[in-house]
Amino acid sequence: MAFFTGLLALLKAIPALVSLMTEIADWMKSNFGDDPATFLLDAAETFKKAREAKTPQERKDAAVHISQLIRRL
């Protein structure tokens, strides 16, 4: 009986879940353009450079790039 109760709750939640996913997709498109994967790759590369920074100038450049990523969010 609990299975059917859970299934019914899931079926009732589907429209809200679809709406949420659509809103998230629209937000990602408005913030990151048509290809959100580009933002994720840029973020990964930026944090990799930040970890590998050795000189003060490299650290400063990495901080600037991280700041730019935060502004894009």
Describe the model.
The protein has 3 helices and no strands. Helices cover 89% and strands 0% of the residues. Helix 2 (36-52) runs antiparallel to helix 3. With 73 residues, the protein is mainly α.
Q: What percentage of amino acids are in beta strands?
A: under 5%
Largest sheet: none
What value does the Rg take, in angstroms?
Answer: 20 Å
Order of SSEs? HHH
The percentage helix is over 70%
Average predicted confidence as pLDDT:
88
Poorly predicted tracts of residues: none
Tally of helical runs: 3
What's the shape? Answer: elongated
Supply database-style keywords.
73 residues; mainly alpha
Secondary-structure blueprint of this entry?
Elements: H1 2-32, H2 36-52, H3 56-72
Helix pairs in contact: 2-3
Summarize it:
It is built from 3 helices and no strands.
